[in-house]
C-alpha cells in the first residue's frame, strides 16, 4: 500500500521540491503551508507521516505536533532551522519521531522518511525477528521474546532506537529518561545500559545493538 506523506512548509518552493522527490519514490504527497490547517486536514484525510516545519504561520510546529499526538497515530518528522538543543529535545518529547535541520538535501529527507516509516508500526512484531517497542506497556521484545525491561530501561532504549546511529551523551540521555528533572549521576546511565545489554545478550548472545562511543556516550545500531 502506498504511504501518504503530508508536507507542512510555508516555503512553497521548498515544499514543492520535497513533494517532487517523494513522489518519485512512490509516495502519495499532499502539502499545506499553514500550521492552523493541519489538524482538520489530518482528521479529514488521514496520513502516514507528517513533515512538519517548526516555524509556521497560524500555529507553530511544536503546537501542531502536540495536537496531532492527542488524536492521531501518525509519524512526525520536525523540520527546523533552529538548531539549539532545547528545541530539538522539546520536539522529540512532544512526540516527534525524528528531526531534520535546514539546510538539508532532499535525498536526506527521503531517506529519513523511509527510515521512520519502517519503525512506525509500534507494538507490532519487528521485521526479521528484530526489536519491537510497545509504549503502552513499556514492553520491548527481541526476536519475539520479552526483554523484561524496567520503565527507565525502556525509556533509555526507546530514545536510542528512535535515532539509529545518533550518538547521545549521558547528559542528553538523562534529560530524556528522567522527565521529572531528578538529579542523578551520569554513571546511572552506564548502569542501565549494562543491564539492557545483559538482557539483549540473553536473547541474542552474539549481537550487540547498543554501542559505546568512547568519551561521548551511546548509540543504537542494528
- State the CATH superfamily name of the largest domain: Response regulator
CATH architecture of the largest domain: 3-Layer(aba) Sandwich
What is the subunit arrangement here? single chain
List the total number of helices: 8
Trace the largest sheet across and list its strands.
Answer: 2-1-3-4-5
Fraction in beta strands: 15-25%
Any idea of the CATH class of the largest domain?
Alpha Beta
Distance between the termini: 26 Å
Taken from the alpha-carbon principal axes, the silhouette is elongated
Nearest-angstrom radius of gyration?
18 Å
What is the average per-residue confidence, as pLDDT, rounded to a whole number? 84
Number of domains: 2
State the helicity in percent bands. Answer: 25-40%
Poorly predicted regions: 122-128
The CATH topology annotation of the largest domain reads as: Rossmann fold
Biggest sheet record: 5 strands, parallel
Order of helices and strands: EHEHEHEHEHEEEHEHHEE
3D architecture notes:
The chain is elongated and about 50 Å long. It has 8 helices and 11 strands. 27% of the residues are buried. Helices cover 40% and strands 20% of the residues. The protein has 222 residues and is an alpha/beta fold. It starts with a strand and ends with a strand. It has a 5-stranded parallel β-sheet, sandwiched between helices. It has a 3-stranded antiparallel β-sheet with strand order 6-7-8, with no helix packed on it. About 3% of the residues have low confidence. It has 2 domains: 116 residues, Rossmann fold, CATH 3.40.50; 94 residues, Winged helix-like DNA-binding domain superfamily/Winged helix DNA-binding domain (Arc Repressor Mutant, subunit A, Orthogonal Bundle), CATH 1.10.10.10.
Amino acid at each position: 500500500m502506498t504511504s501518504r506523506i503530508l508536507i507542512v512548509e510555508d516555503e512553497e518552493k521548498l515544499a514543492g521540491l520535497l513533494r517532487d522527490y517523494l513522489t518519485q519514490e512512490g509516495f502519495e504527497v499532499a502539502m499545506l503551508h499553514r500550521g492552523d490547517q493541519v489538524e482538520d486536514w489530518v482528521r479529514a484525510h488521514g496520513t502516514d507521516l507528517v513533515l512538519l516545519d517548526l516555524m509556521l504561520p497560524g500555529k507553530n510546529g511544536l503546537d501542531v505536533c502536540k495536537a496531532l499526538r492527542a488524536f492521531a497515530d501518525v509519524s512526525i518528522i520536525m523540520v527546523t532551522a533552529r538548531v539549539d538543543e532545547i528545541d530539538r529535545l522539546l520536539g522529540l518529547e512532544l512526540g516527534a519521531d525524528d528531526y531534520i535541520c535546514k539546510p538539508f538535501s532532499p535525498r536526506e529527507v527521503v531517506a529519513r522518511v523511509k527510515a521512520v516509516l519502517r519503525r512506525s508500526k509500534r507494538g507490532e512484531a519487528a521485521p526479521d525477528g528484530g526489536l519491537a517497542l510497545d509504549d503502552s506497556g513499556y514492553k520491548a521484545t527481541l526476536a519475539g521474546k520479552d526483554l523484561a525491561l524496567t520503565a527507565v530501561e525502556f525509556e533509555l532504549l526507546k530514545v536510542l532506537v528512535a535515532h539509529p546511529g545518533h550518538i547521545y551523551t549521558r547528559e542528553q540521555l538523562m534529560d530524556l529518561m528522567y522527565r521529572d528533572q531528578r538529579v542523578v549521576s551520569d554513571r546511572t546511565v552506564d548502569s542501565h545500559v549494562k543491564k539492557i545489554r545483559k538482557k539483549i545478550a540473553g536473547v541474542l548472545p552474539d549481537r550487540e545493538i547498543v554501542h559505546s562511543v568512547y568519551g561521548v556516550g551511546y548509540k543504537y545500531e542494528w
